[in-house]
Design brief:
Chain lengths: 347, 347, 347
């Protein structure tokens, strides 16, 4: 249906896992190279609701960049779709590298279909960051899944974050089903968002967060969509420890936090209360899958100590242990794709 | 029109004020028992705009639970409506009592029509909390008035809150008149909120906040609806002292604060500026009653020292002294219904 | 088309620059008098999109009031439109002057067409404040441009703000083109905002923010419209230093901040990273001009050290140096009109 460079697609399929880590002049800095396609990809939000995306490495969210502060990042981006794109590394200071900031018409020309662009920059500052397209953001970011997590590990972690034993990444976004199969269109005034996802999936097709009693848990929230979400965790007190990657002088305690578009909040809590606990958007209308209730941005914090009950909606749930990139984050710095997020190539 | 258990309705009407306070093992902890129906109830938002709700104890907001930190709470909930429900005690930690958290399909089965469920838990932590249904929240919480205030008095109050002489509870919510007489429907993508209330009433049918010069005033805001509200108080500096019940290390001064769905903010200010002062939502479109302007989420802070002027909209206002539960809060811990919030039973 | 007092219009055109500064009893306080019309005025948001406003002094935003804390303010407001209005001085405490607070039906009668009202009050407290109409705010504030900046210079500036070398005022607002030529109507439930502006202009018809390397920059954000905006600055760390004019005990670092209706945030950052950097609303749908993408609330922070590139959208931009009132703010206290914001009188 769409024309694209078959050469690039083949190169990319071969190269996508080529990750070259080498040491730079700074003894602590690695050079992290990655080859990343932007591909027409059909993903499934929930049940039968599919969506045509322009997916980084064919997945939504895109690959996790988990790097050390000061690392040299080099990402060659191949645009294998039929529309222009770019990549903005949201939060990266780009000190001395402003032309790597990824804004078409301001810092570079957009990457045309069939073309490539290599982004080179230093990972600075540390914290929960993300990346996304900066062309026609009303469609490409809001509706086409062009975003992924970018986490920079600090040289000097705070005392609080040193206590963390398990962490989860949660990217929040919104979709209007009307445009699901009309790439290049949508994201216009009057649109009605009717699907709402964590890491590209709506309840009940997303995953629980599994912890053990005693874990110190860090949730990294990223507002990747167009709406403000109000995230409520049951049964625990969240300490809001970081805003946009920056530590708060005095963490704020909360059970419900607003996460706006582009914002990130890192919250830390102690898993001291075994049970099954909802975590969900308290914007009631964001718990819909189309016109069906009790879906959208909802999940369950499960303690491994608790056995399923008959009434539990997810008692037979097939568990996917890396849905929140929690397994990748355990492995330390690297660039991680995730098969669970991959969609189907659109021919 | 709807079938329901007449037995339960009768029991409830008789039992609703049965409040048994007894001392538990903890010398400071009381056992607070309450019997609470969920009833099909028609309330009036403003002027002729009625709304079919599923009301706790037949009122919107529901009864005020004002308890001490550590109290043992026991609430028997009777579902006298034709749809399933539950009660989530938003903010309560439910330490060791996760099956009392009120989430159908996760912590319990929903309470079916004609059935009951008894919630037993410890009031912890302290602060401004609330309760609401957790079934089909897009309709039941957003549109059917299934919420009430739950205030836990701290064992160790902060220095700032000790100075308070008068307090008011303000629950903010939003309504789409299209679904007003269609219980079991609504709360779907594309809905347009056209009525906006404080404690279930829109201006001018809500009430002023009356203070004396010298009062130290605490406003307890609760985001009970689906939208973010931006509350502006004229003529005074609000100290944002608590977020979700938790004290801020450094209270933030503000004249306008965002209150999102599920969030609570406690602000404290000194009544040192006699006059008549607006307090209202600065989201301009939330000051509408349908298509008529200057309604919705607006009220007036009145100093008793100031006499009415001819131009004052509320110069002949019939004052109801407990509209913000300010009289109940003066009485100390207890469970308080409020005749002013009661609607008409729907037969 | 509309009837209005020709007498008042003539007086106002003559008097609008009559600014009388005199010293009051307080050695540090000046008396600042200003004559200000409210006029039917057609402005251009972007390209061919015009809008009928009720403009203060015939401009949107209105004149900048830049005064010292403690100054005596006296503004005679002449309503030259066909509808009632008032002026609320948002953030001013109005100690002892509550009838100057500008709320019709509460503190005064609305100013009828052809009539005047003189507001007299003390400028207190200091900080980024603003003024706006308080009649039918759903239309007059949200859609008719009835707002302007009011900045009060503190007697005791904070250490951080003393370092500032350049400052910019950014008033954020939203428009529904459907009501552009229907004054007296609009601002009703179901409205769809389709234009989004900074200081009344959408990208690309607004202006860059120009700085030199080494500047310490203060941005004064004012939420003047109906929506929450999420402002993202590329390449720099913003310190959120003031909320509603009040200094934060601990400034919060951020790259993205939510600005709600009525709120003000002052952020300070060091211009230490020469380049061209986007500053824009991260609510993706707010970067639209009607149905065309990459407009709305977007601008570019330009370092004077950087030369234009061929790919730069604004390479031939005609620069207007006072678009953010940055030139006026350099001059010190005064009341400043701005020809760049003036529209065409509607006869």
């Amino acid at each position: 249906m769409r024309t694209f460079s078959n050469v690039w697609r083949c190169v990319a399929l071969a190269a996508v896992f080529v990750l070259n880590v080498a040491h730079s002049a700074d003894a602590f800095a690695a050079v992290r190279k990655f080859e990343m396609n932007i591909e027409d990809t059909r993903i499934t939000l929930v049940e039968k609701q599919q969506y045509h995306t322009f997916a980084f490495a064919g997945q939504v969210p895109g690959p996790l960049f988990y790097v050390d502060e000061g690392d040299q990042i080099e990402v060659n981006v191949n645009n294998v779709t039929a529309l222009p794109h770019s990549v903005h590394w949201h939060g990266m200071l780009q000190k001395g590298t402003w032309k790597m900031d990824g804004v078409p018409g301001t810092t570079q020309e957009a990457i045309k279909p069939g073309e490539s662009f290599t982004y080179k920059f230093t990972a600075e500052p540390s914290g929960t960051m993300w990346y996304h397209c900066h062309v026609n953001v009303n469609e490409h970011v809001a509706l086409r899944g062009m975003w992924g997590p970018f986490v920079v590990r600090p040289k000097k972690p705070t005392a609080l974050e040193k206590t963390v034993t398990k962490e989860f990444i949660m990217m929040l976004s919104d979709w209007d089903s009307k445009w699901s199969s009309k790439p290049g269109f949508g994201g216009v005034p009057g649109d009605v968002y009717d699907f709402f996802t964590i890491n590209g999936k709506s309840f009940p097709d997303n995953q629980p967060l599994r912890v053990n009693k005693g874990d110190v848990v860090r949730l990294r929230f990223i507002g990747a969509g167009d709406l403000v979400h109000s995230i409520h965790l049951h049964g625990h007190i969240m300490k809001v420890a970081f805003k946009d990657g920056f530590p708060l002088a005095n963490p704020i305690s909360a059970d419900t936090i607003l996460v706006g578009p582009g914002e990130r909040y890192d919250v830390i809590f102690t898993a001291d209360n075994p049970g099954r606990w909802m975590i969900h958007d308290h914007v009631d209308s964001h718990t819909m899958n189309g016109d069906r209730p009790m879906g959208g941005i909802m999940s369950v914090l499960e303690y491994n100590e608790i056995k399923p009950d008959d009434f539990y909606d997810w008692k037979a749930k097939k568990f996917e242990p890396n849905f929140y990139y929690e397994e990748s984050l355990k492995k330390g710095p690297g660039v991680y794709t995730n098969d669970g997020f991959k969609g189907q190539a659109v021919q």
